Amino acid sequence: MNRILPPTLLIISIGCMIVLQFTVPIYYIVRFPFNFSGIVFIVIGLGISIIGSNLFQKLKISVMTFDEPSVLVTNGLYQYSRNPMYLGFVLFILGSWLFMGSLSALLIALLFIVAMDLGYIRWEEKMLDRKFGKAYLDYKRKVRRWI
Q: Entry's InterPro entries (predicted)?
């Protein structure tokens, strides 16, 4: 399937945020020095995504969004969130928005979050449900989509 991968969409979204920040910032919601709190979210988001990805690598599972899953991962961060890598991306983009602070950057961040939920997570959930059936439904009952 020829779709944009989530990390690529994250980079494109942050690029759009930067362009809007410098061309049409609209209104600054978060101002200096409070905008530096965004760095905390960026670091935490990056860490969560890396930990989730490393678990897949350790288990020798593809992290490619559109590959058919071979294993239902329910340990590590996956016992707290069904989508820790996406959660990390969301924290990263929210941190980027906080750092920039403008309303226009926030709009892009919100569009990114909607795209993650509707365009990737729900599609993956359908695939996991078809592949793992009852085991996935049991996992869904125990672990929330985000946190």
A: Metal_cation-efflux_comp (IPR052527), Phopholipid_MeTrfase (IPR007318)
Cα separation, 141 vs 41, in Å, equals: 28
Give the gyration radius of the chain's Cα atoms.
16
- How far apart (Å, rounded) are the C-alpha atoms in residues 48 and 84? 6
- Exposed e or buried b per residue across 49-71, where buried means at least 16 C-beta atoms within 10 angstroms of its C-beta: beebeebbeeeeeebebeeeeee
- Residue 146 is encoded by which pair of tokens? 């985000």
Compute the distance between CA of residue 64 and CA of residue 67 in angstroms, rounded to an integer. 6
Cis peptide before 69 (omega within 30 of 0): no
The string of pLDDT tens digits covering residues 3-36 is: 899 999 999 999 999 999 999 988 999 999 999 9
Domain boundaries, the chain: 12-21+32-63+70-142
Predicted TM-score of the model (pTM): 0.94
